[in-house]
Write a structure and sequence with these properties.
422 residues; mainly alpha; 2 strands; 2% strand
């Protein structure tokens, strides 16, 4: 049965291309498969979610987090199809498309979590900045395979991963934007995602325009919030960052009844020794907290993806926000994690300085520090900004462990024998 929610407008690819002969997959199944089989997706298994990857086997990485977000996203699609009077068997949000968007949502994040993102943005300030979401778009539209070509995404997929739709050059230059922007050279990809339509005047650059999202992007965002608001707490409790005493102290000033109810639920789970099972149960509650309502905007005429809004039950939204704030203030801002963040930022900063010294302004480097493929692309670049972006691609693509080993090879006199070269 055909799904009339989507049309040729949604399935159009960035570069016109016919499906291979005999390929029975839908356009969105192909998008999903191209993500799963990419090396950038595999490298997420060794990139930080909360705790540095490899510290303990049971802590989440960017990969396990992305898989969890994808499962939640699919479940939201099924829940909406079965409960919303606006949808039906032949008119529904495609779960394969949402899965692809969820699997890709963190693809562009660098090593060492958000501190790595901030470090690269600072280092790239003179060359267009760095932003994890923008880097995801760069990967899927141009560099996913061997750094030379993207996955040729459909319009619906490209729009689905676009949490932010403001170009960096549209924001005030001082102070330099910290996040939530696209690179200026991505204007053509943004234009493709918008079907060549200009943003109306009321969607001003910044938070207002960034809040304009397709229904698949909205589902991904709630699935992401659901996953990390609950799972980061589980990992934080297992790691000893969160205890009954610390949580009670943190929550002593809460007055909202939904906030206090969320904390009481969490404390009861800790007291019963059932943290994982009790918090995992909230995933189902957060999925069931979603409904659809119709809306309209300048993109509603060509696509149903912009004719619906995801509505979150207010109590679930407050519970999710409370858990996110608890994790931020008691785990992410702890001195232990800040020490690790400092180390990660220092490694990226030093590697950028060393490699940039060889490649950005020299016609030929004195020391060949990069793999041949990366070095050749930088040598062929016509200007320093492009060379800097290619260097940034190399660093952003590193896993935590590979970044640490590369840093040691470049700076540690006692590291670098032939057995250390992998």
């Amino acid at each position: 049965m055909a799904n009339t929610f989507y049309s040729a407008f949604d399935e159009e690819r960035l570069s016109p291309a016919a499906a291979p002969a005999g390929d029975t997959r839908s356009a969105f199944e192909t998008d999903r498969d191209r993500i799963i089989h990419s090396s950038a997706f595999r490298r997420l298994q060794s990139k930080t979610q909360v705790f540095l990857s490899g510290e303990y086997d049971f802590y989440r990485t960017r990969l396990t987090h992305s898989i969890e977000v994808a499962q939640i996203g699919r479940s939201i699609c099924r829940h909406l199809e079965r409960t919303s009077p606006l949808l039906g068997p032949d008119f529904h949000i495609d779960a394969d498309l949402v899965e692809a968007v969820c699997l890709a949502h963190d693809l562009g994040h660098p090593p060492f979590g958000h501190t790595g993102e901030r470090a690269l943005n600072r280092l790239m300030a003179a060359y267009g900045g760095f932003e994890g979401n923008a880097q995801t778009l760069r990967l899927v539209s141009g560099t996913l395979y061997q750094g030379t070509r993207g996955m040729n995404p459909t319009r619906a997929f490209a729009d689905g991963i676009l949490k932010y739709k403001t170009l960096r050059g549209e924001l005030p230059a001082e102070p330099p934007p910290e996040n939530h922007f696209l690179y200026d050279d991505q204007a053509s990809v943004l234009d493709f995602a918008m079907g060549g339509r200009d943003f109306p005047a009321e969607l001003t650059p910044g938070d207002t325009r960034n809040a304009f999202r397709s229904i698949e992007c909205q589902i991904m965002d709630w699935a992401d919030d659901t996953a990390y608001s609950l799972h980061d707490l589980i990992d934080g409790i297992h790691a000893g960052f969160l205890t009954r005493t610390s949580i009670e102290k943190w929550a002593s000033g809460l007055t909202d009844s939904h906030e206090t109810a969320a904390i009481e639920y969490l404390l009861a789970a800790i007291a019963d020794g059932k943290v994982e099972s009790r918090l995992e149960r909230r995933i189902g509650a957060f999925i069931r907290a979603t409904t659809l309502e119709q809306t309209s905007c300048f993109l509603s005429p060509p696509t149903h993806r912009h004719a619906f809004r995801l509505v979150i039950d207010p109590a679930a939204a407050v519970e999710c926000a409370t858990f996110k704030r608890l994790a931020l203030e008691q785990v992410f801002l702890s001195h232990q994690l800040k020490q690790l963040e400092y180390k990660g930022e220092r490694m990226l900063t030093e590697m950028f300085r060393i490699i940039a010294g060889q490649y950005l302004e020299r016609s030929s480097p004195r020391f060949q520090l990069l793999p041949p493929a990366s070095a050749e692309m930088i040598a062929a670049a016509q200007d320093i900004a492009t060379r800097a972006r290619l260097l940034c691609d190399y660093l952003a693509g590193m896993s935590d462990g590979f970044a640490a080993r590369t840093y040691k090879r470049l700076t540690d006199p006692d590291f670098g024998s032939i057995v250390d070269l992998v």
